[in-house]
Amino acid sequence: MHGVVFIDKPAGMTSFDVIKRLRSITQIRKIGHAGTLDPFATGLLIVCISRQATKFIDEFAQLNKTYTAVLKLGEKTDTADIEGKIIEIKDIPDNVEQNIDDVFTSSLGEIDQIPPQFSAIKKNGVRLYKTARKGIQVEVELRKVYIHSLSFMNYQKPYLDFRSTVSKGTYIRSLGEDIAAKLGTVGHLTELRRDFIGPFSVKNALSLGNINKEILENSIRPIEEIIATVQEYKNEKSS
Question: What domains, with CATH codes, occur in the chain?
Fold first, then answer.
C-alpha cells in the first residue's frame, strides 16, 4: 500500500492524530502529511503513505491553500482561536460592513506576518506552543507570506465569514487578527476549514470517522498521478 490519500480532518484532532490513526489501520510507519491543521480546524490533509510517497511531501506543502474562516470580532484570545482564553475585549465599530472591502483589498499581496505564539514553529529547537503553555512569550521573526485572495462571505455581528487563498506558511489566525485590527477592534477565529491545497479539493477527501483498511486501499492514488496533477496545476498558474 503506497501513494497519496486525501483526508477530511475533523475538529478536535491534531494532524498527527490522523497520521497515528492511519498507521494503526495500515501497520505502515512511513506516513506523513503535507501541511499541519490546527486542532480546532477541519478540512483537507494530503497524506503520503510509504517511503516513496513521503519524498514528495515538501512539494505538496509548497502549494497555495484555500480556507474558509469565521472571525469573531470584539474578543481577542491568547491562541487567536476559539480554544484560547479571552485576553482582551473591545467594542465593535458600527461601520464594520462598510469597511470590509477596503480592509480586504489592503490585506492582499505580500505581507509581513507574525506567527502566533501558539504554533508549531520551532525556536531554539522548541515548539512555540510548548513555551506559550508555560506563559513564556518568545520573540518570533516576521515572515513574508502572500495573500492571493480575500473574499467576504457574510457578516452577522460579531461574526465575519471570509475565504482566502494564501501561500505556504500563512497563518489564517494571524490574518484574522490583522483584519480585526484594521476594522478597529480585536478578534479570533471560531471556525477554520481548509477547502483546497493547490488543485486538490476537500470534496474528494475521506471522512476519518468511517475509514477502514479496505476503504483506504481503494482510495489511495498513485504518487505518479498526483505529481502529474501538481505539474499541470503549476503550468496553468505560470501561463
Answer: 3-63+199-238 (3.30.70), 65-196 (3.30.2350.10)
